[in-house]
Amino acid sequence: MAAPPLPTPDHDSQPFWDGAKAGRLSAQRCPNCGRFRWPPAEYCPHCHHHGGDWVSLPGTGVVQSFVIVHRAFDPGFEDKVPYAVAHIALDGADGVAIIGNVLTDPVDAIAIGQRVAVEFVDSGPISMPRFKPI
Ligand SMILES: [Zn+2]
């Protein structure tokens, strides 16, 4: 069975993945204007300041929207369908919402407005954030 494809960290996202490997959810914040940004980037999209600080977050958030995937788009996910993929607004990082799996049982128990907490699944070089209802 094929393994699911993993993200490939780049210069901008490497600190996020380093934090995930250490069990920490984090987001990038501009040291000039103080606003968070996602995805990670070299320049602030709000004030164009170069660089950013990485802030550890509580690891909780709210489901803003979701889809339930019934057909695997990659052979690595064939044994995982159906599964939920959600847009999750992160606590402690105003304006940041990331995409991630939400693990509910049954899968259609997921709901918009549901509060969730992160957990990390070690997948070799990457620790993937996943979310569970709280
Ligand atoms: Zn800024």
Unreliable segments of 5+ consecutive residues: none
Number of domains: 1
β-strand amount:
35-45%
SSE order, one letter for each helix or strand:
HEEEEEEEE
What molecules are bound to this protein? Answer: zinc ion
Number of helices: 1
**What characterizes the major β-sheet?**
5 strands, mixed, barrel
The residue fraction in helices comes out at: under 10%
Gap between N and C termini = 32 Å
Structural class estimated from helices and strands: mainly beta
Query: For the residues shown, what is the average pLDDT?
Result: 96
Supply Rg. 15 Å
Shape: globular
Q: Give me the side-by-side strand order of the main sheet.
A: 4-5-6-8-7
Question: In words, what does this structure look like?
Answer:
This protein is mainly β and 134 residues long. The strands form two sheets. The protein has a five-stranded mixed beta barrel with strand order 4-5-6-8-7. Strands 2-1-3 form a three-stranded antiparallel sheet, with helices on one face. Strand 5 (83-90) and strand 6 (97-102) form a beta hairpin. 6% of the residues lie in helices and 38% in strands. The chain has one domain. The chain has one helix at 14-21, and strands at 26-29, 36-37, 53-56, 60-69, 83-90, 97-102, 115-123, 126-133. The termini are far apart. Zinc ion binds next to loops.
Notable traits:
134 residues; mainly beta; five-stranded mixed barrel; three-stranded antiparallel β-sheet; 6% helix; 38% strand; globular; binds zinc ion
